[in-house]
Amino acid sequence: MLNTKTISELSDLLERGECTSVEIVNDVLASIDSRDGVINAYLTLDREAALEQAKSADVARAAGKTGPLLGIPLAVKDLLNVKGQPCTCSSKILEGYISPYDATAIAKLREAGAIFMGRVNMDEFAMGSSTESSAFKKTRNPWNTDHVPGGSSGGSAACVAADEAVAALGSDTGGSIRQPAAFCGCVGLKPTYGMISRYGLTAFASSLDQIGPITKTVKDSAILLEAMAGHDEMDSTSLSLNPMTAVQLMTRNEALTEIPISDPKEYPSDTNKQNGMFSSELIDDHSLKGMKLGLPKEYFVEGMDPEVEQAVRDAVAHCKELGAEIVDVSLPHSKYAIAVYYIIATAEASANLARFDGIRYGLRLDGKDPAELYGKTRAAGFGSEVKRRIILGTYVLSSGYYDAYYLRAQKVRTLIRNDFVEAFKQCDAILAPVTPTPAYKIGEKTNDPLKMYLDDILTTPVNLAGICGLSVPCGFSKAGLPIGLQIIGDSFKEGNILKVGHAYEQTTEWHKQKPEL
Amino acid sequence: MKYEACIGLETHVMQKTRTKMFCGCKHEYGAEPNTNVCPVCLGYPGALPVLNMKAIELCCKAGLLLGCEINPHSTWDRKNYFYPDMAKNYQITQADEPLCLGGQVMAEVNGELKTFTLERIHQEENAAKNTHVSGASLIDYNRAGTALMEIVSNPCMHSADDAFAYIHALKLIMEYGGISDCDMEKGHMRSDVNISVRPVGQEKLGEKVEIKNMNSPSFIVEAINYEIDRQIDLIESGGAVVQETRGYDPDRGETFTQRTKENAHDYRYFPDPDLLPVEISAEQVAVWKSELPELPVQRRERYVSELGLPDYDARVLTAEKSISDFFDAACKQTKQYKLVSNYLMGKVASLVTEKGIAIGESRLTAETLAQVAELVGGGAISSSAANELIDVLFNEGGDPKAIVEEKGMAQVSDDSALEQWAEEAIAANAKAVEAYKAGNAASVNALMGYVMKQSQGKANPPAVIAMLKKKLDA
Fewer CB near the terminus (10 Å): N or C of chain B? Predict the structure, then answer.
C-alpha cells in the first residue's frame, strides 16, 4: 500500500526502482475509491491526467531525471490555480471556472515532477475552521467521522490522514493549515509571509495568506517547502531569499539570508539539489542541545481542554529531555489577535472577493443592469459565512469607521508582532498548543460563529506577525482524537521550527498512528 | 453682487508605456478587443499586480517637468467600486502618499502669463472600455490596467479661459516630455472639472460641483461657462448649489445631474496589501532630472537667442511639438533658419490645413525642406518657385534638385538673358522709364514686374534690378 508512505519513503523506493509512480497513483486512487465516500475530502479527481503524469514521471526517471518529488502525487486545496483544473474555492460562485494558469507554487512543483491528483475540499474561500462552510460537501475527520477535520484546509488534512494522498497543499490565513493538521494528526507548516509566492493562490486576506504543506512527517513538509519557496517576480510581497535545502532547513538555526535577486551568484549550484542532501547522519541527530524554546503563559488559555494542555506540556518536557532549554516568554497582546484578525482579514476579503461578480467567469444571474446582476449573482453564489465576512469587512472600511476599526487594528497588529520580536530575543522557537480543544463534532459550532472564531486564538497571532508556525502530532485525547503541538519561529527561521519538529517527531511515535477506517 | 468662479481640474493622462501598469500585457491602441489581456488585468482568482517601473519613471518625470516634489516613499491603495469596467471591482491608486507633490503649470491667458498650482500627481490604472449596443454592453479589457496618472490642480482657475490655457500648457508639456502622446481622440487626456462660485471677496469656497470625464477642451470651456452661469443664477434666485457630480451634454450645451451627494460612492480606500511602497532615492531623482527633455518655453528661448528668430516665429513653431521637432531636424541641415521658419508657418501650415493631415503624414521631410531653404538662400530658385516646390514635395516627395531641374524652376541669373529681358522691358514701358529718369526710383519695380512676367518667374529679382538700373543709369 504505497499510499500510506511518506514522500521521502516513496522517493527512496522510486530511486531504487522498487516501485513506479504509476503504482503509487493507482494505490492512492484505490484508497480514494474505498474511503472517500465516507471522508468526502475530494471535490474533483483528475484520474486520467494523474496517471498520464505518473507515466511521464516514470519515463523521465528512466531517462535519468531525479528529485524527491518526481512522480509523487499531491492533493491540492481548491483555491490554488492549476492550469486546466477547476478552482472553485468550495464556492458556487466559481462553479464552472477552469483555471487558465498555474500558481507559481504549482508551476515549481510541476517542474519538480509532482503530480496533481485532484482538488480537495475547504471552507468556502478559506473562511471557516471546520470545512463546514464548503458549498459542496462535509468532509469528515478520519479519526472519528462524526467530527470535523478542522479548516479551512480540512480536505487537505483529512485526505493525508486517511492515506487518500501522500501529501497535500493548503493555505493558512489564520490557522487554516495548522489547525486541521492538528485535528487530523498530520504535520502542517505555515511558512513565513513572503516565503512562498502567493501568485495563483485565490486571495482571502492578502496580508495574511500563505501556501503551505500538510504532510505525514516534518521532513515531507521541508521537502515541499524547499520546492515552493523563493522570490517570484509575479508577487511583489515574496522575498528574495537564498533557497535552502530541506536538510539545511531542518538542521540549521540561522535565518535564511536575504539577498538581492539580481545576483545569481548567490544562488546555490545544482550540487545542493542532488540526492546526498538527505544524509542520515544529519537527519538522525535529534539533539536539541543549545536551543532555547519559549513557553508563552498566555497561550495556555482559560477553558482549554485539560487533555490538550497535558499533551503539550508533555511535549515541552520531551523537548527538554532532548536537550532544549525551556524559557518563559510573554506575548501579552496575543489576546487581541482574534479581534484584530477579524477586522483586517475581513477588510481585505471584502475587496478581494469583489471580483466574483458574474461578469467574466463563474456563476452569473442576469439582471436588468450591472447592479442587479451583481446582487443576484453574489446573493446566489456566496454562502452565509462569506457574506457575513464581506459585510463585516465592508463595514470596518466604511467612511467614518476606518480609523476606529481598520487603522486601530493595524496598530494593535504591530504590538502583537513586537511581542514576538521581543520573545525571539530570548528563544529560538516558541512552543504552544495549536487549538484549545481537539476536533469537535460536525454541526456543533455552526450556529455560533463567534465561538468558532475564538478557537483561532492560538494560531492567528502567527499570521498577524507574519512569522512561521508548524503543527506536529503530540498525542491523543481519551476519545482518540489527535492533539497538535505548535512550534512557532521568527521570520524566515523555518529552519528552527523544522529542526525542533523533526527531532520531536522522530523521538516519539504519534506520527506513526493511523486511523482505523 | 459680483461672483468669482473657482475651478480645479483633475486631469487623467495615459502614459506612453510599452506594457500595462501592473502586468506584462501590451499597451496598444486599436488592437482586436480582449487580445491584450491576462489573469492579472482580467482580475482572475489568485492573480497579483506587479509595478511597471517605466510608468513610475514617467510619472515622476512629469512631476519634475511641472516642478513637483518627488515623494521618497509613496504607497498604493485600493479604491472600491463595482462597475464592469474594473475587473477587480477595485482600482489600484494612490490616496495618501502620491508619487508627486505640489508643482505648477505656467500658461498664457489672453497675453498674461499665469501660474496655476498643483496639489499632486498620483499613479493609477485605467479602466476597461465599455461599449453600449442595443440590449447589451460590450467590454474591451485591452485598456484595463494601462498606466494612468492623475494631475490634480488646486482650485486656482477662475474662468474657462484659464482652464483652456492650463489644459493646453499641460498637454504641450506632456508631449514634449515624452510622457504621453495626449491624443484626445484616443482618450489619452481626460479631465474632471471641479467648479464652485463665491461672492468676490469671500475667502471660503462655495459648494462645488464636479463635471466628470471630458476629453475635448472646447467642451470643457462650454461646460464651465454653462456651469458658472447656472450656479450664479441658482444663488441669485435664492437657491443653493448642492454638492453633486454632473455630466456635460455637448448636444444641448448643458450640464446635468449624474449623482447627488447622498448617492455618492464610499470608496473605502485602504492600503493595497499586494504592493510594497515605492522608495525613490535622491540619486534616482537626480538621474531622472538629468534626462528631462527641453520644454516648449526653453525651446522658444533657444530659437530666439541661438537661431535669431523673432519671438513670434518661436512661439508659433513651439506651439506644436511635431512642428517644432520638424523645425529642429531641418535646422540640423541648413543655417537658413528664418527661411525654414517662414515655410513651416506659411506654405507648409496651409498645406497641412488644406489636406487635413499631420506634417509627419506628408511626403515632405526635414531634409527636403532644409534643401529648399538652401536653394532659396543660395539664389538657385525664387521664393515663388520655392512654394511650388514645397507643394510637390509635400504631396509627392522626391529630390528637390531633381524637381527644380525637371520642372525648370531654376532662377535665371545669366547676364545675356537678363540683358535681353531688361531691354524689352525698357522698350515696352516708356512711362515707367520716364518716371524713373524724373527721379522716381520706385518705378523700377514696374519694370521688374514686367521682366518677372516675361521670364515666368525664373529671373533672379536682385539681378534683374541691378541690370535694369545699369541700363537706365547708363
Answer: C
Closest CA–CA distance from residue A395 to any residue of chain B (Å): 9
Q: Do the domain assignments include residue A441?
A: yes
Distance CA B62, CA B99 (A): 10
pLDDT (tens digit, 9 = 90+) per residue, A316-344?
Answer: 999 999 999 999 999 999 999 999 999 99
Predicted confidence (pLDDT) per residue in A194-205, tens digit: 999 999 999 999
Q: Read off the pLDDT of residues A34-65 as tens digits, 9 standing for 90 and up.
A: 999 999 999 999 899 999 999 999 999 999 99
Least confident span in B55-69, B239-253, B422-436? B422-436
**Residues with Cβ < 8 Å from A80, sequence gap 6 or more?**
A87, A103, A105, A106, A169, A171, A200, A201, A202, A211, B46
**Beta-carbon separation of A351 and B90 below 8 A:** yes
C-beta atoms surrounding B433 within 10 Å: 20
Question: Which chain A positions have a beta carbon within 8 Å of B50's beta carbon?
Answer: 233-236
In the numeric block, the cell 506577525 is attached to A465
A19 to chain B, closest Cα gap in Å: 36
A84 in contact with B, Cβ within 8 Å: no
Query: What pTM was computed for the model?
Result: 0.86
Least confident of A271-280, B95-104, B425-434: A271-280
Encode pLDDT of A408-446 as tens digits.
999 999 999 999 999 999 999 999 999 999 999 999 998
* Residue of higher predicted confidence among A448 and A61: A61
Q: Which CATH number fits the domain that encloses residue B436? A: 1.10.10.410
Instruction: Please tell me whether residues B316 and B455 are part of one structural domain.
Output: no
Verify whether the Cβ–Cβ distance A355 to B51 is below 8 Å.
no
Contact A139, A41 (CB under 8 A): yes
Cα maximum dimension of chain B: 97
Give the whole-angstrom CA distance, residue B48 versus residue B51. Answer: 10
The radius of gyration of chain A from alpha carbons, rounded to an integer in Å, stands at: 21
B85 with B194, same domain: the answer is yes
Residues B148-185 as b/e (b if ≥16 CB within 10 A, e otherwise) read bbbbbbbbbbbbbbbbbbbbbbbbbbbbbbbbbbbeee
Residues in chain B with CB shorter than 8 Å from the CB of A107 are: none
B47 contacts in chain A (CB < 8 Å): 101, 199-200
Chain A interface includes B130 (CB < 8 A):
no
Q: What gap in Å lies between CA A513 and CA A501, rounded to an integer?
A: 17
Does A404 reside within a domain?
Answer: no
Residue A152 annotated as catalytic? yes
**Structural domain containing residue B118:** 3-284
B436 and B387 together in one domain: no
Q: Which residue has the cell 520580536?
A: A421
Catalytic residue among A77, A108, A216, A499: A77
Please indicate, yes or no, whether residues B7 and B83 belong to a single structural domain of this protein: yes
Distance from CA of A490 to the nearest CA of B (A): 21
pLDDT given for residue A242 in this prediction: 52
Tell me how many domains chain B contains: 3
- The mean per-residue pLDDT over the stretch A221-226 comes to 94
What integer pLDDT is reported at residue A250 of this predicted model?
57
State whether B186 and B229 are in the same domain. Answer: yes
The chain B residue lying nearest A202, using CA atoms, is: B46
pLDDT above 90 coverage of chain B, percent: 73
- B44 and A101: CB-CB below 8 Å? yes
Q: Residue A160: which domain range?
A: 2-336+412-512
C-alpha cell at A262: 539580481
Does A398 contact B266 at a Cβ distance shorter than 8 Å?
yes
- Respond yes or no: is residue A77 known to be catalytic: yes
- Residue B265 sits at the chain A interface (C-beta within 8 Å): no
Same domain membership, residue B135 and residue B57: yes
**Residue B289 forms part of a structural domain:** no
Average pLDDT over residues B89-108: 96
CATH number of the domain residue A103 falls in: 3.90.1300.10
Q: Span A347-353, mean pLDDT?
A: 98
Contact list in B for residue A356 (CB cut-off 8 A) is 45
> Residue A280's pLDDT is what?
31
Q: What 3-state class would DSSP assign to A342?
A: helix
Q: Are residues B18 and B152 in the same domain?
A: yes
The answer to whether residue A240 is catalytic is no
Chain A: nearest CA to B87, how far in angstroms? 6
Q: Give the count of domains, chain A.
A: 1
Q: Which helix (H) or strand (E) holds B9?
A: strand B3-14
Q: Same structural domain for residues B57 and B86?
A: yes
Q: Inter-chain contact A237–B88, Cβ cutoff 8 Å?
A: no
- With an 8 Å Cβ cutoff, is B465 touching chain A? no
Decide if pLDDT at B247 tops 50.
yes
